[in-house]
Amino acid sequence: MSQARNVLVTGGNRGIGLAIAKAFVEGGDTVVVTSRGGEAPDGLRAVTCDVTDSASVDAAFTAAEELFGGPVQVLVANAGITKDGLLMRMSDADFDAVIDTNLAGTFRCVRRASTGMIKARGGRIILISSVVGLYGGPGQANYAASKAGLVGLARSVTRELGGRGITANVVAPGFIETDMTAALPEATQKTYKAGIPAGRFAQPGEVAAVVRFLASEEAGYVTGAVIPVDGGLGMGH
To answer: pLDDT digit string (tens) for 110-136?
Structure first.
């Protein structure tokens, strides 16, 4: 078994982020999650982090490093928000808030994580995007733009840091079985599933499994990649 790594999952207190955090714990890694309020799910340790604030990000990483007793070796940047609205009605504030959290917030976390990874000459950075980032979505100009931006970010990090044993990859989930999708009317779910070649929504653990692979030693030569976990919905990206 490979040595346990220090894994930080932003927005790891619920949904896909929580599934990812639990998968790393089950794999024997040491995990800390971030949340805006600092709340820790059962069996996990958490630090408070507002990804829109560089000082908060720095403090969160410092707190996590103290819990780990060393630097962050695997960063999973998952924290994100939505503020959907049709293009003509979308306010500057709603556009800016989503970009600041989903794209700039991820940049702040990657920048802070890279300092320890450069010193260690190794690390894994995994950015959680969305099929919407490449496929587009009506009413989601802000969200799609923020998630598409993660691809350019990961590939630029790969160009800069690839020679230092650091990989940066993107996972782009499609529709996932969550409380949110479960609350959709049955007819709506049926319509969505009809457009997915696999004919179903994903389980959160299926996303987590891909993230864990990208963080593994076996994925050391996979970097700058976009891995869709969408049942074929966004083929070709």
So the answer is: 999 999 999 999 999 999 999 999 999
Q: What is the pTM of this model?
A: 0.96
Q: Which of 135, 143, 192, 221 is catalytic?
A: 143
Integer Cα distance of 72 and 174 in angstroms: 28
Structural domain contains residue 235: no
Domain membership flag for residue 82: yes
Position 180 in a domain: yes
State the total domains in the chain.
Answer: 1
Task: Give me the domain span that covers residue 208.
Answer: 6-226
Q: Nearest-CA neighbor of 71 among 122, 17, 11, 36?
A: 122
Confirm if 76 and 126 have CB atoms less than 8 A apart: yes
CB atoms within 10 A of CB 8: 30
The reply to whether 143 belongs to the active site is: yes
17 domain-assigned: yes
Phi, psi dihedral angles at 134 (to 5 degrees): -115, -25
Q: What is the mean pLDDT of the chain?
A: 95
